[in-house]
Amino acid sequence: MPRTLSRRRALGGAAATVLVAAALVAVPTAAQAHGGLTNPPTRTYVCYTDGLAGGQAAGEAGNMKPTNPACVNAFADSNYSFYNWFGNLLGTIAGRHETIADGKLCGPDSRFAAYNTPSSAWPTTRVTPGQTMTFQYAAVARHPGYFTTWITKDGWNQNEPIGWDDLEPAPFDRVQDPPLREGGPAGPEYWWNVKLPSDKSGKHVLFNIWERTDSPESFYNCVDVDFGGGGNPGPTPTPTPTVTRTPTPTPSVTPSPTRTPTPTPTPTVTPTPTPSVTPTPTVPADSVCELEVDVTNAWQGGFQGNVTVFNATMEQVDGWEVSWRFTNGESVQQAWSSTTTQSGSTVTARNVAWNSTIGHHNAVSFGFIGSGTPQAVTGATLNGNPCIVR
User: Any idea what the Cα angle at residue 366 is, between residues 365 and 370, rounded to 5°?
Assistant: First the structure.
């Protein structure tokens, strides 16, 4: 993606860091991402079910033929989001949700960009102010983490894509590691009880983030609801199967024990987007890696970089080699936690013995000292597979 490196303050007040993050799909298929709300249903899930129903009605069971106008638009933009409806994620975000640009909250990955589009046609779940409902979140793969949910403010502009200022400054629900059960509409699911805001009326959007605590990966969901009351409060609930452990739902907002993985500095401050990340990265339809570049420290003629390699597949990676191209004459002077070489503008970094394995949907990191003025990198690969550049 042709943009300068994103910058954020270092703890000691230093100006810059280079972070390169990458994800490998170890098989020749699309990345198997894993997580999304089925009740109340996220936009991606309702379009997935709409597409299946349309194919069934057309006598083409298994084929995607959406009929809802908003879903038709999403399908025309990218059918990836239908076959991977649970893959609306950023693999290297590491809690920095505020860096997602306004208008891209519902689809921060460009393969899901259509879900940012305002439309009165999005399938809507009817709810009642103050009701308690069971949230069901498909656990295509199981990981620890926080599930945090915000709601749009009264008077939010329904004709524009949702931005941070459209959300209430504090989430109305937050849980950590909710219980898991089998038998959900999409298989195993996390579930917890949620008390909806009692002071809302009319149409709103719920914005939910599943932030893993064992990986930099996070998943994003936008859910359309109508507080008109009555009607079906969501998809037909699944019978409650045996729970695998004691439920720990937390209807009220609770602070993170280490940091607050929310798009606000504190749960009570209105989040402010970072202008430098407004461009959307170019994302190959079945890309196998992610690459993100940031700066932790910089000085005249040099900088310090940190590289995070992220594996976005269900398969463990045993032995990795990352490469990328500098675009502004930069060069690596020394590196740690990797064996790094450079030829022309191309840098190649290989694992060392102690960090050769990357678990599925997980990451390892290494660092380097570079000379020059850092700019966006291009041509990133992981074990020869082309990477998304974030």
Answer: 140
Stated length of the chain: 390
- Render pLDDT for 190-210 as a digit per residue (tens, 0 to 9): 999 999 999 999 999 999 999
pLDDT tops 90 at residue 285: no
Is the backbone peptide bond immediately before 40 cis, with ω within 30 degrees of 0? yes
155-161, Cβ contacts within 8 angstroms, sequence gap of 24 or more: 156/204, 156/205, 158/118, 158/120, 158/203, 159/118, 160/103, 160/118, 161/102, 161/103, 161/104, 161/105, 161/106, 161/116, 161/117, 161/118
Q: Three-state SS for 158?
A: coil
Is 56 strand, coil or helix? helix
CA torsion 288→294→296→299, rounded to 10°? 130
**Which residues make Cβ contacts (< 8 Å) with residue 275, sequence separation at least 6?**
none
Helix spans in the chain (H) = 43-57, 69-77, 80-83
CA 246 to chain centre: 27
Give counts: helices (H), strands (E), the chain.
Answer: 3, 25
* Cis-peptide, bond into residue 247, ω within 30° of zero: no
CA 368 to the chain's CA centroid: 27
Residue 356: strand pairing partners: none
Structure tokens given for 2: 């042709």
Q: What is the CA radius of gyration of the chain?
A: 21
What's the chain's average pLDDT?
Answer: 78
Extract the tokens encoding 227: 């507080």
DSSP state of 48: H
Burial class (CB in 10 A: 0-12, 13-18, 19+), 177: middle
- Asked whether the CA dihedral 259, 260, 265, 267 is positive or negative, the reply is negative
Of 52, 50, 26, give the one whose Cα is nearest residue 383.
Answer: 26
**pTM > 0.85:** no
Ordered strands of the 346-350 beta sheet: 289-291, 385-389, 378-382, 321-325, 346-350, 339-343
**Rounded distance, CA 218 to CA 89, Å?**
6
3-state SS class at 311: strand
Helical H segments across 112-239, by residue range = none
Q: How many CA atoms lie within 13 A of 8 on its CB side?
A: 12
Token pair recorded at residue 318: 């045993």
d(CA 205, CA 103): 13
